[in-house]
Amino acid sequence: MAEIAIRSVKKTYGKVQVVHGVDLAVRAGEFVVILGPSGCGKSTLLRMIAGLEAISAGEIAIGGRVVNRLEPRERGCAMVFQNYALYPHMTVADNIGYALKVAGLGKAERRAKVEAVAASLGLEDFLDRKPGQLSGGQRQRVAMGRAMIREPKVFLYDEPLSNLDARLRVAMRVEIRKLHQRLGTTTLFVTHDQVEAMTLADRIVVMNAGKVEQVGTPKEVYGRPESTFVAGFIGTPGLNLLPGTLDPGAGVVHLEGGQRLAYDRQRWAGAGAGRVMAGFRAEAARMARPGQGLDAVFEFSEELGAARLVHGTTGGAMVVVSLSDGRDLSPGDRFGVDVPAGEVQLFDAGTGRRLSGERAPAAVPGAPVLEAV
Amino acid sequence: MIERTPLLNLVTHLVLVSGLVLLLMPLWIVFVAASHDFHTVNQVPMPLWPGDHLAENLAVAWQKGNFDRVMVNSLIVALGVTVGKIVIAALSAFSIVYFNYRLRMLVFWVIFVTLMLPLEVRIVPTYAVAADALRPFQAMFDAVGLSVDLPEWNLLNTYSGLILPLIATATGTFLYRQFFLTVPDELTEAAKMDGAGPVRFFLEVLMPLSKTNMAALATIMFVWSWNQYLWPLLVVTDHQTFATATMQLQKITPGPAFGEPPIWNVAMAANLIVLTPPVLVTILLQRWFVRGLISTDK
Amino acid sequence: MEKRATFSNLWLAAALVAPQLLLVFVFFYWPSGEALYWAVTLEPPFGGSNQWVGWMNFETVFADPKYWNSVRVSVIFALLTTALSLAIAVLLALFVDRRLAGHQIYKFTYFIPYALAAPAVGLAFRFIFAPDAGFVSAINRVFPNLWNPALDGTDALALIIMAQAWNMAGYNFVFFLAALQSIPRTLVEAGAMDGAGVLRRMRDIQLPLITPTLFFLVIINITDSFVNSFGIVDITTNGGPARATDLMVYKIYSDGFQGKDYSLAAAQSIVLMVLVVSLTFLQFRFIERRVHYS
Questions:
Q1: Segment holding A253, helix H or strand E
Q2: How many whole angstroms from its chain centre is CA A119?
Q3: Cβ of B88 and C265 within 8 Å?
Q4: CB contact under 8 A, C194 and A51
Q5: Average pLDDT over residues A257-277
Q6: For residue A94, what are the domain limits?
Q7: pTM of the prediction?
Q8: What is the ipTM of this complex?
């Protein structure tokens, strides 16, 4: 177990900069998920921590020791790769035990450790097989076993679940979480899948275009996104965002289509007038009769089983409302979108950042949400 | 990857540079020797820096080796083999892959087996056939009792004799076959839906798609056929007219150690003339050459 | 593998393969068959058709110490050229694949020797290794008569071995490098995470994963040493001195075309054919067993 400190880390390939000064502190024993779309620099960041990429600028410290100049083997990290990177010519036992062999451990001792790790992952019966004879989930476990056996200070996962089918992915997610609870090892997990991030993480680091957009618990990034990017990326569907002008005097946002959306004036007491994006969750809004709330035109709906997502437009902007009852609409039908003033969040239209001058809301808990579960 | 291995990096660079010296030094020595006069080239130790007699030596070697003529011959043979191979290989691969007939597996194997025996291994009988290319048919007619008299078709001292036996292998056919098998079926079906027949499909769909493979095969075949030595040596007796460039190396090679000291500078100049075309082709078209190497031999 | 969508015009199909089949028949099957025929018959001294003699030609060949000499020389030549050439090539490929600064240069230059014709290689090496001129002759200044391929059989054999190994090293390099580059980079990275250094990873991960290529190249090199060597021997040593470099192909050539003994040459050809075909079969077996990653 070790804490990781990342200080203004940058990565450039030639003239192209892919990571623009990332700062991040990971506490010892924490499970942190780095989430972002492909090409956002999240894997590069992970590989810099592992020592597989050189750090162009800045500093990374693991357990208080700066590791910039250290080789991968000296950093005490173990990594699970996206394609598992199992040695195809070695048996499962040899794959898991290779690090110990390199470290010069005796055969008997090695065997004992390999068997213990294999048993904890349910791989006892496959020790003499080659990776080619294993299923995707089994390979995944071997890759985890190979990482576990070294009892590393830090676990690094590089999109380890993206090669699995949906059902297996859920099962492996649970196993990874359980493994973390059992070992308590500091873990960094890179993914582009927000569901994976929400379910696994103590804290999520949302990255976009080489920058950190927000660091927070799953509940924080969902409930209080720091930017329109995070707002749109987290949640299914993402936050509804409507462009408009803030009128603090009236406590409303004048939307571009000419409609007005009331917000909580007390909460946003510090916000000044100007161009904003007003956001609200599809789950927080209610569908109402035409004329009530925002005026919207129905386009289509998506059936999710437990709920239904109703897509429409209001004043030229897309809007989505989540419904649990079964009202049928035809394309072109008008309906109202009732948004409680307390649910409206405000972002600067120019920078995309959350408006400053908001009173700290009491609703968001400080403790990591999954530990409370 | 972050790896602090300064010593190993030094060793790596040393090994790689030694490799470069090892693999290019012989060429450099040929070049240096070809650029000195008779006296200097026979010095011990020989100079390792080029002199100023290169043009002179090349001129002598060019004259002595009759290169005016033999370079043209080599070019005809190399281009003949290359074009012939590409056309014949593409046609037969198309037939084997895209037509469904009962004998096609047999045809496949009949062609495939030829990969196993290079020409050099069966020179004696191939030479006999080249003396009269219609003899196999004559012999078959005789065997079944037909009294058909075929004329004699002597391939010795002809371009056909130099080219045809070199085309009769499966190398290119298999390159094409492998490639055709990777072309999605949907493409054929789409062409059929569009009303294209086999000839049209071959010319307008398959051939444009095969450009890369064709280029790779062409570079390999050009170098390979330019470098042929044993076969031309046998087929050509009229050296004035039909000799190829590589054959001239034997002529220009210094004789046994007795008597006059060998004229190394001219011999190396001749060698330079002969090795330049294939070396140039591989360097200029190295992308295709490497690709061709790897795909033709699998 | 078969195509789902095919054409059905049989005449066209036949016409398309006809040129290939004709060539193969006239220049491959017929001569190979004829070699078989000659190997078991003898041409009578006063004309007339050949007489069946069964194994006699083979017995003559096998009873000839000169033949066994050529087999011995060929085997030594094949094994040493293959070992030497592959060792150099794999070493260079492993180090080029470290991808240090400047490695691209080597990628583009190492294969050049393979572009040379065998006789051109022979002529170059004959000069470089000439006892009284050229590059190596300096050694004789220091140790007189230490090196003379024109008189010493071992020197002559060493000379053609070096020439052939040099010729093939570039070819082997191309294959080794391609094989190394097809190993997923993450495997090497996983090795580094597991604590293995550069050399350890070469030994434990990269080399085992390119063994299929290694086997393939062993066969190709041995075959090539039987086939391609003619040009080298013909230019450098003419099989001498005292048959020290009388390789099998060279002996077939000299018996058949200089000695005009077709039957003996044919019998030797058959033996060589069997040898080459068995090697090729071996090769196909190994190709079947290529390692698949992921």
A1: strand A252-255
A2: 31
A3: no
A4: no
A5: 88
A6: 4-223
A7: 0.86
A8: 0.88
